[in-house]
Amino acid sequence: MGRYRLRPAWHQRMHIHDVQDLHLTATTTAPGETVTITRMTPSVNTMIVWGDGNSEIITAGSVAALNHVYAAAGIYRVVVRRARVIQQVRLDNAKLGGLNTRELAASPITYFFVTLITGSAINSVDMVAWRPADWRLYTMPAGTYTINSANMVAWTPTYWELRAMLAGTYTINSVNMVAWTPTYWILRSMPAAGSSYTFAASCMRNWAAVIDIRCNDLGLLQATVNAILYDIWMGFAARTGVAGNIAVGGTNQAPSGVFQAAAACPVTVATPGKEVAHELLNDTCAVAANHWAAVTFTA
Questions:
Q1: What is the rounded average pLDDT for all residues in the chain?
Q2: CB distance 295 to 280 below 8 Å
Q3: pTM score over 0.85
Q4: Number of separate domains in the chain
Q5: Is residue 153 located within the same domain as residue 191?
């Protein structure tokens, strides 16, 4: 009788984890339609299987778009082999769907740009080990979305954007982002039900290089809008970004006061919000740092 040796359970688990694939769907409604994956960058060569009998190799480090023409209308199962080698993902074609970030939990993601695709399950708990320089999630149709900034504490993104999403659970607290150094930070037009958007003091003042902050259309209270403006002003002297923009309007309550020079210098946490906005633009208190090009708010 031949002899064989069983692999230990831990070895089997590692093997299964090692070959975890990324699954998507491609839906076409007419013959000859092209489906595009704008970016799928692996660290080593890997394969994409298009679900119609065709496949191709994705070259290591490639940021080129992947285009595939389907001969017939239908719903196709797309598989990217070895998800753990994927570093960059951009999916922005409504013909695509089915993204589950759980399949990318072990992937060294440095770039994540997802919009328009259908039927996805996106959960920030899958992203704890990621270190994206660029992370964007916006304008998604129905799906399952759970985004908590507590899972992003170790990140230091240059570009971070969450906006115009449908119902989900969004728990965003700037206290989780104090150590960040963003150039662009965009959180706007988000659902209020079942979610929270908290702006802690001493966060945005640390973002010396930021040139675009948008936290409009979140239904924020006046006190919160005032606090955001004051926090940004507190980092004024250290500011290195030039000609930036701040948006705190829309469905947010208007900042307090009148848009005019500050009654007293330097401004304090008690200074009316519109006076703080005036200082950010005009610097009548002579802080002499780079000025913001625009501060927009509900009049």
A1: 92
A2: yes
A3: yes
A4: 2
A5: yes
